[in-house]
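User: Sequence in, structure out. Go.
Assistant: Echoing your sequence, followed by the structure tokens.
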Amino acid sequence: MAKVVTQGKGGKMERLYEYFIGPLFRNRVAAIVEACVSMQDDLEGEKRALTKHWAEHERRLVGTIPPNIGLALVFFRVFRRVQVHVGAQLGVSDTIRRTRVLRPGLGPF
């Protein structure tokens, strides 16, 4: 019985060895490797595109923040001068004017 089991093993090993060194196995492995390399190339290309896109957005954002902050400060200063001027004409004290301009928790406006 032991001889029957070992006799079949040699033929199976030879067929398996022939499969591994043959073109069918080589072609299958090459197809898998090619698919993986292609996916990696696509991923790297997408990463480059997104990095470029994010850099452009960041450049535009950084370029717009300082002018907008400056504009908001100008509006606040003009608003404050108008309130002080109107308050002075109405005889409102400086403490009341400050309370109206800088409401707690609501910001300057």
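User: And one key feature?
Assistant: The radius of gyration is 39 Å.
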